[in-house]
Amino acid sequence: MIPWHRLFGLTLTDLFFNSAYEVELEKDLSLKQQLLDVVIIEKKAGPSPAVLPDGLENLAAHNLMTYKSHQESLDGWTIEELCGHYVNYRKQISPSFDKLVPAEDFNLYAVSTRYPEKLSGEVKFIPAAPGIFDVLWGIRTIRIIVLSRIRQSEENAPWLMFSAESEKVKFGAASYRWNSPVSSIINKLFKKYEKEGMAIMPYTIEDYQREVKEEVLNSLTKEDIDYLLKRLQPEDLLRVLNPEDLLRVLKPEEIEEYLRKIKR
């Protein structure tokens, strides 16, 4: 299965790469592990991103975000959890409980691939832009971003890649300009999407790891192989490469020599 939450977080990490904001993923907020999907934090230095996708135009110093993929539902309990994460996070970064960081330094976002029908029937959704809604939750406003309803534009490419709609996913993947080294990893995953319906993906992390291994093996030079032979013990080399791999990178006599070393 595609690790949707990790992939979503990595895309946002790339979006804010070398900017005035840094992104933290799966932040642990308690002694009993409770992970907040994404935190976008303003740094003291660095340029603001040239373009931001819809819904992120008014970033605060600390932006807490929960994310639900096309396989999940955004509901009231998710919003309650997000508010709880906000309380914990605000306490953690404040000088003391008596001197909390100002509430206006925080924004809360709930990002969902699918439109949350049930939630929209329970609270008033205030439209802010196509696919963007504000919800008053207690004394705080939660920004709801529905990825399947976001307008199709280049600046929304990071959202569209997670929209679960074939043409929008294709458009987003083709339009987004990656900023960081992580792009090669994410691009390989996007290339494996079965875009029609965005249902269960047959491509797994194990598949990806096998492909990376194939690429590494195919790119090995004679100098690389000599380096491996000198630095790795025979048993270590066999843990990295199976017999078929060995036949591809080593000569028969080199394999025989390694087998003799293992038997000693």
Description:
Helices cover 42% and strands 18% of the residues. The protein has a seven-stranded mixed sheet with strand order 1-2-3-4-7-6-5, sandwiched between helices. It has eleven helices and seven strands.
Layout of helices and strands:
Elements: H1 4-15, E1 21-28, E2 35-42, E3 62-68, H2 76-93, E4 106-112, H3 117-122, E5 126-129, E6 132-137, E7 140-146, H4 157-160, H5 166-175, H6 183-191, H7 205-219, H8 222-231, H9 234-240, H10 243-249, H11 252-263
Parallel strand pairs: 3-4, 4-7
Antiparallel strand pairs: 1-2, 2-3, 5-6, 6-7
Detail the poorly predicted runs.
194-205
Which outline best applies?
elongated
Strand ordering within the main sheet: 1-2-3-4-7-6-5
Major sheet description: 7 strands, mixed
Helix content: 40-55%
Average pLDDT rating: 78
- Quickly count the helices: 11
Radius of gyration: 23 Å
N- to C-terminal separation? 43 Å
Q: What is the element string, with H for helices and E for strands? A: HEEEHEHEEEHHHHHHHH
SS strand fraction:
15-25%
| Secondary-structure-derived class | alpha/beta
Extended strand count: 7
